[in-house]
Amino acid sequence: MSEAPSTAPVCYRHPSRETYIRCTRCDRPICPDCMNEASVGHQCPECVTEGRKTQRQARTVFGGSTLGRAGYVTQALIGINAIFFIISAIAGGPRAIAGAGGFLGLMGEGTPVTRWGSVLGYAPYVLGGEPHGIAAGEWYRLITAMFLHYGVLHLLLNMVLLWQLGRYLEDKLGPLRFIGLYLLAGLGGNVAAYIFTAPNAPTAGASTSIFGLVLAIIVINRRLRLDITQLIPLLVINLLFTFSVPNVSVPGHLGGLVFGGLVAFILAYAQGKRRSQIQAIGLAAVFLVLVIAAIIRTQVLLS
Length: 303
What we know:
The protein is mainly alpha-helical. It is built from 10 helices and 4 strands; from the N terminus they run E-E-H-H-H-E-E-H-H-H-H-H-H-H.
């Protein structure tokens, strides 16, 4: 005598498996392999996937993505600076690394790479040669200069601060807002160096961006109502370094400081439902001001 067929429900994804458990969203039967624990009951894989599509992504206090907690942008920036330095050292030889002068003889000398990418107003490389610089159309220098360094000590000093400050700010702001802060602070410092430095004096270094991060972290912590007393000495030490050590770009450091603080203020104090739009407009306005200032300086040098 044959057995009566089973009337138990079967998993909709595995018809050979009987189950009495159902998805709490779609009510379809699911076996243990298909169950995903939910706040109430269990859900099937399709409902979990659909739920993730409609789930609102977690945001930081300032509207950024929480992906910043991983510090990927900070790591990438350090990697880019390191790659540029390796290329510069290969092109310039041993004295590009250290021992060429500056900071008690520990700084490196210029290389073909720093000559190509540093902030230079308008001057020939050799007497009587073709003029180079930003006013000669080499606008890329306003960006590349923030990734170039004179010697390994110069690089290490900046990268240590970037590692310490960058991870914190990237966590609070999110990756996109943090990279906007970093680049606009660096651009602000380089534009200031372009305007207030002799047109034949090259300058380079991530210090323009780093100084912006120093003031930015004070602004952000102030907005979060966190203690900033331990950050003030960091700012003071960096300012003393700027004004006391020879061959340091004072306009570049101060420009990065001012524009980094300004960008941080926009990101920190933009509020309301249109916060992201206000932040984007504010950063775009800062960028436009810097571009206009660089154009005016160019016209002055060429006149």
